[in-house]
């Protein structure tokens, strides 16, 4: 089972100040001069989800060591999952900002869907750790899981692939597992974020947004072709 270990950067959203170039959920994405906020060819706007500043994150083998990676999804009824409706923008270099981005509790309004990020921006705090293959992942059949051992219950509770993260294993089951995401790397997963008093992020019916990338494209820092999923129980 130890052969299944993969490194992951676990991200936790917190209500702390961020600059325009920090890792964050919601708020305003960094834009170079002349760049516009992305709009789908249908005219439906994109919804800004998250920004990752790799220079300020733990180092993960094969993933960028610097640069800004931004994620947008289409603001329609299905958040773009049926229309290839995502947009990913990568800045390999940029001018770092020291200006604090104002926090707001106001929610963005979209004509066709509910927002995913409520208020913001929220800072993303990162922890590097290793993950075992989740029990729900079809690949788990290749490992000797302790199904007749009391330790199995602990494994069951702690390895389900949930959480906001970069790398590691995604939250899925056999119905959301296909030949694309089974061989690709998890680029980014957004799960429910918040605290006991407030929800920061929630997708559809307590779902997760997932972006996968082929290993060769990841190493080349080519983020033009991803596999995008919305997984909901």
From TrEMBL:
Record-linked Pfam families: DUF1963
Residues passing through the membrane, by range: none
Protein name, as recorded: DUF1963 domain-containing protein
Organism the protein comes from: Lysinibacillus mangiferihumi
